[in-house]
From TrEMBL:
SUPFAM superfamilies assigned to the protein according to its UniProt record, in alphabetical order: Dimeric alpha+beta barrel
Protein name: EthD domain-containing protein
NCBIfam families assigned: EthD family reductase
Gene3D superfamilies xref list: 3.30.70.100
UniProt GO MF annotations: oxidoreductase activity
All copies of domain EthD, residue ranges: 13-90
C-alpha cells in the first residue's frame, strides 16, 4: 500500500465555502476516476484553531507500481488541472509516506 498526503490551502480570492464545495463536489469525484486509487479522504481543518492549511488530503494506492501508473495517467492530469481552480498552488505540500499505526 502506498499513501500520499497533500496539504491544501484554498485560494484567497475565493470564498472558503465555495472552495470547500469545489474540493468536495468537483475535485473529489475526479480522484475517484483515477485507476489504482483505493482510498481517498479529505480532512477539513477547524478554522477556530487558525490552521496553517484548509485541509489535508490522503490518497492510497494498492502498490508502488499502481501509484506510478496512476500519476502518469490522463485521469491524474485532469486532477492536476483542476487544482488551481480552488487551491493556492504556491502553498501545496505533498509527500509519499509510510503510515505507522501507534494506537487504533
Amino acid at each position: 500500500m502506498v499513501k500520499c498526503i497533500f496539504t491544501v490551502s484554498f485560494r484567497s480570492d475565493l470564498d472558503q465555502g465555495a472552495a470547500l464545495r469545489h474540493w468536495r463536489e468537483v475535485h473529489a469525484p475526479l480522484i475517484t476516476q483515477v485507476a489504482g486509487v483505493t482510498r481517498f479522504t479529505q480532512n477539513i481543518a477547524s478554522q477556530q484553531l487558525a490552521p496553517a492549511w484548509d485541509g489535508v488530503a490522503e490518497i492510497w494506492f494498492e502498490s508502488a507500481a499502481s501509484y506510478e501508473e496512476a500519476v502518469k495517467s490522463p485521469e491524474w492530469n485532469v486532477v492536476l488541472a483542476d487544482c488551481p481552480k480552488f487551491m493556492d498552488m504556491s502553498k501545496l505540500g505533498a509527500a509519499v509516506v509510510d503510515e505507522v499505526m501507534i494506537l487504533q
